[in-house]
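Sequence in, structure out. Go.
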Amino acid sequence: MSKTKIKSLKIICVILIFFFTTACSSPKTDNDVEPVDDQLFEKETIKSIESKSNSAKKYSVKTDIASAPTDISVKNPNGIPEENKTSNHSYPEITEIKGTREKPTPESKSTQTENRILSDSERQVRLEVPIKIQEVWNYCAPTTVSMILDYKGIDIDQYQLATEMGTYEPFGTHNADAIRILNKHLFGYEYPADNEPGYRIATVTNSDLNSEDMHLFKERVIDNINNDFPMYYTFDMSRIYPGKAGEHNVVGTGYELTADGADIAYVYFLDPLASMQDPIHGGLKKVTPQELLYAMLTCEEPNYAW
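Output:
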């Protein structure tokens, strides 16, 4: 056989073998798994677990349950939860209420403060009545009324008032006339009816602490001062100012409570007499209610007006 024929025969055999192999073999599917190296698989698995564990540690947060807040609502400056701002309920803003301090009285003391000691500012209630000095020796009543009117915004001098009151020597002014003119300028009538506001005269006959006169006097002082109306007092000077003599009129300007607020300890008055002024307090004086009423008893007209 020639070399050419032998070469051709080899080529034909190779082709036949190729076709035979292709026809008998099955195609590779997704289920065909290549052999796995067990040691390599174990190493990769351990590596993966460690990697996930480290990742979990990196992003974990330690929380103290005991200290964790239970209220997570967001509050606005007024303390209203944001979650309630759209509800039907209204939440008024907190505002500071400003006003005058309520003047203390024995009746207004609550049971919660019965044993509390009041400060000086809480115990003292005074009206800032402007001082006027009487310019004539027997013009104490006209000057007293002039100070009361001035405090209420009415400016009338003591000379005009003395004329209207009928002030005369050697006595001075009768209390009834002084109060009549006070009512005239302050309220528009000289004699107030029972249901009308106005000053009224009281006559003192007993200065004992437990007397009806004392009880009414304290009650009227508190009522007048708390309602911004000064008092009108008449007393025997010898019982207030040792060595002095004569009946005298002054303006009652306030009171001072006891330490527990249960009673009136002192009353304040403003004296228009020039000789009774001092460089610190002017004509402001302080006496006990008993001392004041005791000094009224010996007067020809033992009166006060409220």
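Check: Strands lie at 124-126, 201-203, 231-236, 247-257, 264-270, 284-287, 303-305. The CA atoms of residues 77 and 160 lie 62 Å apart.
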